[in-house]
Design goal:
globular, 3-stranded antiparallel sheet, 50% helix, mainly alpha, minor pseudopilin epsh fold, Helix Hairpins, 204 residues
């Protein structure tokens, strides 16, 4: 069975950038619902022994009536596990080491990276995500996907290492329609050590 990440911080720990009510709703209700529904659908499809990565890679092999729901709820499960795992109180700042060097090489500077991924997040029409992803060679890419899609579903060899959730449930209780302000403040709670670990795993 697929399980929600157990948060290593309290629901109010990301204040004032991410408020406790948003965390309670986002993690406790939305993410829980995606996870529970995903598990139910996997049982129905007989794929409880598959990894989530295998499921995304073999979506076309699933029964047609389950394919869309599994894609949506599986994405909701996976995307949110990653999202909550790279947040932490008292973090923010800038990455260091190999990830920092690759960001500078790929995007010109950290500030340019922030501008580009922020544009991907604010420019996504409707609900979706912005991503920093890496391939096995260590190349980095910024992208955006609708709904609960993610780069793994595209089959191009890129693994997401940093997500920005731009569904309204991620920010609307605090920021209302000011998505750009939410994206700006989001950088104050990114745990770059966790993102660097994701980068290393993507290359493994």
């Amino acid at each position: 069975m697929f399980k929600q990440i157990q948060l290593p911080y309290a629901l109010d720990a990301l204040e004032p950038y991410v408020d406790a009510l948003t965390m309670e709703t986002h993690y406790g209700k939305h993410h829980a619902a995606y996870t529970n529904t995903f598990n139910t659908l996997c049982e129905k499809a007989g794929i409880t022994d598959w990894t989530v990565e295998e499921i995304f890679a073999k979506l076309s092999e699933l029964p047609e009536d389950l394919r869309g729901p599994i894609r949506n709820n599986g994405g909701g499960y996976y995307n949110h596990n990653l999202y909550f795992s790279i947040l932490a109180p008292g973090k923010g700042g800038r990455p260091t080491g190999a990830l920092a060097a690759k960001i500078d090489e790929t995007f010109g500077s950290f500030d340019e990276f922030v501008a580009k991924i922020s544009a991907a997040a604010t420019g996504r029409f409707g609900s979706g995500w912005a991503w920093l992803s890496a391939d096995k060679a260590g190349n980095l890419e910024i992208s955006s996907t609708p709904n609960q899609d993610n780069p793994l579903m595209e089959g191009r060899g890129f693994t997401p290492i940093l997500p920005i959730d731009v569904w309204e449930h991620a920010y609307y209780l605090k920021y209302k329609n000011l998505r750009a302000e939410y994206v700006k403040q989001f950088f104050n709670v990114i745990n770059w050590d966790a993102v660097a670990e994701n980068y290393a795993k993507a290359m493994a």
